Amino acid sequence: MATQRAIRPPIFGKKQVFLPNFVLTLLRTPSSPPNFATFLVPLSLNKLDLRDYLFHAYGIRVHGVRSYIQMKKITQDKPGSKRPKPRKWFRPKSIKKMMVEMERPFVWPEEPKEFDSWDKSTFDAANKDRTQHEEMFRPDFREKPTGERASMAEQAKALLQGKESWRSTPKENEWDINGEEVEVETDVELPKTGP
């Protein structure tokens, strides 16, 4: 006859976190198996903190944690600066990722098809406007052709290929008004000035 064995309390999970002052971001990784989850964590968080947090906050038992710090590429200036400074090197803050192996599998919810409830169109328009505005402050902005110049190049190409014909400039007297000038607003009363 088989006897039931008492379930031991976990060895870990003694550090209780009631009000965490950090942010964990769960990353969507479709290539990972369902019992693995990847998090974007602060640089100060360690493996034991993540394991304790997942156990106390969500009741998830973790078999193992793998972590790595990903360094960002060196750029010529701080991102988002108002006045770019060429040849002033800056390395953005590194990011830390942790992958946990969970006891039970986790299934992601389906991605939404429509983003109307999040007002994504406004976000995309603001993002496009911001990137266009930032382009004006780049050091090579004056070297790039403007939209008018590109339009003139297209018109010249169409003329050379014979798709459009050349229209001559109007003569001097073509723009003259025939007849007398006519007052448009006759019923407007102007206020009197002076005594």
Automatic annotation (TrEMBL):
Region of interest (Disordered), residue spans: 128-195
Molecular function as annotated in GO: structural constituent of ribosome
Domain of life where this protein originates: Eukaryota
Compositional bias (Basic and acidic residues): 128-147, 164-174
Alphabetical UniProt keywords: Ribonucleoprotein, Ribosomal protein
UniProt keyword Ribonucleoprotein present: yes
Keyword Ribosomal protein: yes
InterPro entries attached to this UniProt entry: Nucleotide-bd_a/b_plait_sf, Ribosomal_uL23-like, Ribosomal_uL23/eL15/eS24_sf
GO BP terms, alphabetized: mitochondrial translation
Pfam families: Ribosomal_L23
Biased composition (Acidic residues): 175-188
GO cellular component: mitochondrial large ribosomal subunit
Similarity remark: Belongs to the universal ribosomal protein uL23 family.
Protein name: Large ribosomal subunit protein uL23m
Species annotation: Hyaloscypha bicolor E
